[in-house]
Structures are given as C-alpha cells and as structure tokens.
Design a protein that fits this description.
83% of the residues lie in helices and 0% in strands. The chain is mostly helical.
Length: 257
C-alpha cells in the first residue's frame, strides 16, 4: 500500500511543480511581474482560480485513489478480523463442549463411586428380604441357617447381587403360583418394609443415574442387573399389595434393630 501511495503522491508533486513552473513562465512572458500586482482583484481571483483548478482536480483524483486503496485495505483487515473472531468463536464452542464433556465425565465418575455403595446397600436389603421370605415358598428355594450364614459370607465377599439374584430365581421357579410370588415381597409387614426400602433406594439411584447420563446407558445397565430385575419384581408386586403394606409411609423404609 505504501509503495502504491508513494508513486501517486510523487506524480502529483511532479505535475504540481511542472504546472506551477508553467504558470510562472506564463506570467513572466505574457503579463510581466511588474504588471501582475496591478491586476484588479476580481481578475486576479479569476486568473488564480483558473490556474489552480487543474491542480485541485489532480489532487482530488489522487486523494480518491488513495482513499479507495485505504478502504480496500480496511475492508480486508475487517474481513480478516471477522474470520479470526469466527475461528475464536468456534474454538470457544469446542472448548465449551470439552468442558461440558469433562464435567459430565467427572459427574459420572462420582456417581459410579456412589453407586458402588448403593449397590452394597441394596445387597444388604435384598439379603434381609430373602431371609425374611424363607418358608414362604413351601420348600422352594429354602435354605437352613448354616447355608444362610454361608450366603451372607459370600455376599460380604463383594457378590452384592447374590440375594437379588436368588430372589429373582426363586420368583421364576414359582411362576405358576402368583400369590406365593407376591408373598415373597409383600407377605408380611417386615417383608413389605424391606421391599419398600429396596424400591426407594433403587429409584433414588436411578434418578442420580439419569441426571449424569443423557443417553440412559447407565440407567439401562442398572435396570438389567440382578438388582434391577429384583426392583422390577418388587415394584410390580407393590402395585398389587394392600395399601397398608404398599405405602412406605406406613411400613417405613428402615430396618428396626
């Protein structure tokens, strides 16, 4: 831009100098400097106006091209600035998405840590429910006290879904006895309390899972686990249980020791 502007300015200066030189020669030869200062003011004004009009037009044209070039440069600069702003905006969106993904991942990690403790809690509740349901099935799936102790020892060895799995298996074996199936979960106030506690605890975990998992992958995995299958059975029988047993506010959801 500077080189382009320089040659126009130098051209203008050269033409201006040449034009002034021609004017001086014209005054010297045609008018004379002795008579020049005696010319009336109106004639002198008209003479100077005619003499400098071409120079004014010349510099107007030069100024136009200089301004045009500057406007083009400014337009290019603004366009480049707009592109840079757009790139920065895109980068900001990418960074925002990465931050959101990182936050979601962190929340999921926290949830999974909490879920391990909740699954352990559900394992204890299902163990108490299974122990309370002994004798309900009339020989189906019953265990003696020694076997029960072994089962609780196995459950303590981190097989937290053991009793949920056994309840589901027992429920399947009793497929032709719907009343006995329901009694496994709501056959007594104690069993109703354990079942309501299991449902309450599992649903609370489900809500937390849905809050950190927009695709519901974690929720679906929980629902198809042994705890999830046991929850679905308990939830189904809760709907058909008497009101005094189905209502957690009546039965309570905590174990009284």
């Amino acid at each position: 831009m500077l080189a382009s502007a320089n040659w126009r300015v130098w051209l203008g200066l050269g033409l201006t100098a040449a034009w002034l030189a021609l004017g001086i020669v014209y005054v010297s030869t045609s008018i004379g400097w002795n008579r020049f200062h005696t010319i009336p003011a109106d004639q002198l004004g008209s003479f100077l106006e005619g003499a400098f009009a071409p120079l004014a037009f010349l510099w107007l044209v030069i100024g136009y091209f200089l301004q045009k070039r500057e406007l083009e440069q400014n337009t290019l600069a603004l366009r480049a600035q707009a592109e840079e702003i757009q790139r920065q905006s895109e980068q900001a969106v990418i960074q925002s998405e990465k931050l959101a993904a990182s936050e979601l991942h962190a929340r999921q990690e926290v949830f999974l840590q909490i879920a391990r403790n909740v699954k352990d809690q559900l394992g204890t509740i299902s163990g108490l429910l299974f122990m309370s349901s002994q004798g309900t099935a009339a020989g189906e799936g019953g265990v003696d006290p020694d076997q029960m102790s072994q089962l609780f020892a196995q459950r303590a060895a981190q097989d937290v879904e053991l009793f949920s799995r056994m309840l589901v298996e027992l429920h399947v074996r009793l497929g032709d006895q719907p009343d006995v199936q329901a009694a496994l979960f709501y056959g007594s106030p104690i069993r109703a309390r354990h079942s309501n506690n299991f449902i309450f605890t599992f649903e609370r975990m489900l809500r937390r899972a849905e809050a950190v998992d927009p695709d519901f992958i974690i929720r679906d995995a929980l629902m198809t686990s042994s705890h999830g299958l046991c929850y679905r059975l308990a939830k189904r029988h809760q709907a058909g249980a008497p009101a005094e047993l189905a209502d957690p506010a009546v039965t309570g959801i905590h174990v009284n020791i």
